[in-house]
Amino acid sequence: MKIVADKVRFAYGQTQVLREVSVEVREGEVLGIIGPNGSGKSTLLRCMGGIYVPAGGEVRIDGARLPSMARRARAKQIGYVPQTSGEEQPFTVLDLVLMGRRPHVSWGLGSRDVAIAAAVLGELGMTHLAGRYLNELSGGQRQKAHIARALAQEPAILLLDEPTSALDIRHQLEVLEFVRRAARRDGRTIVLVMHELSIAARYSDRLALLSDGRLHAAGTPEEVLTEQALQEVYGVEAQVRPGEYGLEVVPIRPLHEPEAAVGGAAR
Amino acid sequence: MNIKTRQSIWGLTLALGLLLLIAAGCGSGTEQASGNQQANGTQQGQGSGAGSEPGGQVGTDSGDSAAGEAGSGSGEAAAPPSDITVTDSDEKAHTFAKTPEQVVILGSYPASMFQALGLSDLVVAVDDFTKDSTAWPPFVTSLPSVGSSKTPDMEQILTLGADAVLASYIDPDVATKLEEAGVPVLSIYGYKTELIPVELRTLGRLFGAEERAEAYAASIESHWALIESRAADLEETDKPTVYWESSSGAYRTFSGGTGADPLIRMAGGINIAGEEPVSNPQVSAEWLVEKNPDVIIKYASSTDLGFHGGNEANLKDIREEIVSRPGFDQINAVQNGRVYLISNKITSDPLGPVGLTYLAKWLHPERYDDLDPTALFQDILETYYGEPYKGEWVYE
Amino acid sequence: MTKHGGGVQDAAAIGELHRKHAGRKLLVLLVLAALTVLAVLGAATLGSASLGIGDVVHVILVKLGLAGGSVDALGNAIVWELRLPRILLALVTGLALAGSGTVMQGVLRNPLVSPFTLGLSSAAAFGASVAIIAGASLPGNLRYWIIGSAFFFGMATVLFIYFVASLKGSGKATYLLSGVAISYVFSAGVSVMKYVSDHEALREIVVWLMGGLWGASWHVVAILLPLVVGILLVLLANAWNLNVMAGGEEVAASMGVHVKRLRLLVLVLATLAASATIAFTGIIGFIGLMAPHICRMLVGGDNRYLIPCSALMGAVLLIVSDTIGRTVIAPTEIPVGIITSFIGVPFFMYLLIRQRRQWWG
């Protein structure tokens, strides 16, 4: 399933956060959204998930405009995982994952729902944690549990907001390998908001670089992550070179007068 | 406060009051001092000036009590005009160099007593509730108010130049502050039935109205005696049981030590809550139904019964609410139509003999047939208050 | 992906785990339901009137048409007219306060929320005080004025807080801080009322503030029971939505929940249930905060179980408290609010200390 953001505008109060951003993600593709803090990455992701309604422009999945879709129908197509908040309510991992079945059930959970949850947990290697309460888990395990919840939703499109921010390097790789497989093998459409540029470059088919609410560049990692772009958008001097496992981005030093405005709204 | 504490405080108050009345000497410095006062049946003669000491000691030290005992019944001619020491209803002794002439009254009961003793000219201010809501006795409505009866405006009291405050409900801290500022604060309740004659006499002595106070107090006591004497030969089994409910809230009643309880006893009834340890207990409905009182009395507030007449519709509603409570159809009082509403202004109040008469007639119609509460009320109002009878007082 | 191989056993294990968890939650629910029935029956046999258990059972059976014969009028009055309506009022009040506390905590994602912390109770108390003070100048039965006024102010407060929060952004602190602020305002208002009121009205305000169930009658039960049960059913129907809220508002929104609408619906219904009962009973503290927490420790956060469990827990706690209140120094009654605090708080603290897991951080 294909998801398109078409000239999306969004503002928090008076602060313009997105100014006509357009991106397109094809079925089975991983799109990484990168950009400095406050450039509108998470906001764009939320607009694509139907959580925020854009002030202008529109989001379409397979040609259907998001607001025109029933909420439940939309939820069957789009799964969303926010950044970890660090606080959890009294649910077990299994509780949480089964919660992902919400768009598919009205009251009771059937054996099919449990089977799907079991499959997702097995795939993420979390079966042994199913009975544990969320606040008994490490940050990485918790992050994976939330991803499992979104996967149990069986969405065609999966939106992940910095899914690896809380994870150590091993868990990062595990999660991203899994995400890539979900795109390659299962044909899911994946959108990731990422901070870590090398990792983003390695696991994304294409990147969208946001700067101050505008799309600075979109394309393959090699097209987007240029030394000039890093200088303009992030205000850093960096070296970018192709490596055996994708682009290597080596930041060198911040420039004293960044050419792009950093900051803007939080989030 | 439980019944025991109450009783002991009462006992102490009475004992101390008595002691002081005997010991401290009275009225010798005032114009109206006229020698011995007539004592009532239960208290000893008083009027000794011998025990009174300049310097204003309270009457509790040994010298005073000894003097009091020794001087009991003696004349006062020898004593020079001197301080007046009285004990208020919280057993606190107050000594005055002269009769207070600017009095602030907080509470309608002491205000009522002031009118009855012909002292209303001395009052310079009252509290909001007395002035606006009770509006009795009539003189209070034209006086300034010093605010709440519990926490009055102290500055205003001082500005008014009050030399005494009489209070029914004052906050103890406020009272202390006022005393520190030089204004004595006397506790005069006026709603505790058994204390009423004592308080009248205390006021009479302090303000030089002994004769009138004695006359009123004695008439109250003689009325009690009359009612009691006719019920004296009743067997316990012939005494109707009474449930007396507060005007604030269903199932809230009065146990021993409250103003209503002695009235029931005098009128030859049994207060079903008389033995409860809490003074204003909230009782359970099923207990009440099981106790099955013969008579139910309910206080009506001054807006429903009183000088301003009765609010027929409200009164009907109030009685209807009582008789229609769940399970009350099993109660004798309800079955026999013996549910009465009465104003608290004529019960636990200096006007109490009126309410007592109504009560006696409700409990034992045959024994009190000849008594006419309205006539009695008229007589009290005219004799002591100088007011015409008006209003509605009970709902039968 | 180390355990990727054992798919079949994994699935079986997860299925087993799910059955076990669901079974345990169901068991807790059934036990609580049984306890509720026991509490009702037990409370019906206890009271200041000297009736034997046999008499009580006989009256109930005859009245329910389950036994023949007749009942004497006194027994009928005491058991059927007095005790049962009162017990049922305790039941429905417990259901309402605990149920609304649960869903308010859920929908606002805040463990400290209850009808009290949102300022609802203070507002209702203020409303009641106003009516009590206005008293005689109001036409008709004062009781209904108190109820109406308490309800009006309670509802107005929650709506006000809701709109403040929707203007300000729905940060967790916004609700609680507005609630606390409103509480202070209305508490001050009640103090003013107490300060200016005469002694009779003052006592009535104090009595109302302490809370009690003596106003019970079949009439009151007939008003409240359908209302509260109906509201609880609607809330229960939203259990999934509330569950999803646990993952955060964004997750809920992404899963198809209309967050603002859900929040408004839940708050209004919970307020309606709570303030309707508060209006009849006065302020009864702590149940709305305590019951949900106890039940969260027992069944976790799944609102499909949590809502009914908390509601029943609230009912049991209130019935037991009221029974203690009306029997311990009978015939004098102790306001039930005092008992809920005295037995509830230590029990709650015990659970809190014993519990290793801490929710919400």
Model description:
The complex is a heterotrimer of chains A (267), B (396) and C (361). Chain A is built from nine helices and twelve strands. Chain A is α/β, with parallel strands linked by helices and 267 residues long. In chain A, the strands form three sheets. In chain A, strands 6-7-8-3-9-10 form a six-stranded mixed sheet, with helices on both faces. In chain A, helix 3 packs parallel to helix 5 and helix 4 (111-123) packs across helix 5. Chain B folds into two domains: 43-208, Rossmann fold (3-Layer(aba) Sandwich), CATH 3.40.50; 232-395, Nitrogenase molybdenum iron protein domain (Rossmann fold). Chain B contains 14 helices and eleven strands. Chain B has helices at 3-23, 62-71, 108-116, 128-134, 154-159, 172-180, 196-206, 210-231, 260-266, 285-291, 312-323, 332-335, 352-363, 373-385; strands at 84-87, 93-96, 103-106, 123-126, 164-167, 185-187, 241-245, 270-271, 295-300, 339-343, 394-395. In chain B, helix 1 crosses helix 2 and helix 8 packs parallel to helix 13. The longest helix of chain B has 22 residues, at 210-231. Chain C has a single domain (6-354), classed as ABC transporter involved in vitamin B12 uptake, BtuC (Orthogonal Bundle). Chain C has helices at 7-45, 53-63, 73-107, 120-134, 142-168, 172-196, 199-210, 218-237, 239-245, 249-254, 259-281, 287-299, 303-327, 336-354. The longest helix of chain C is centred in the first third of the chain and has 39 residues, at 7-45. The chains are: A alpha/beta (267), B alpha/beta (396), C mainly alpha (361). Chains A and C meet through helix 2, strand 6, helix 3, helix 4 and helix 6 of A and helix 1, helix 9 and helix 10 of C. Chain A: InterPro entries: AAA+_ATPase, ABC_transporter-like_ATP-bd, P-loop_NTPase. Chain A: One of its GO terms (molecular function) is ATP binding. Chain A: It holds the Pfam family ABC_tran. Chain A: Residues 3-237 form the ABC transporter domain.
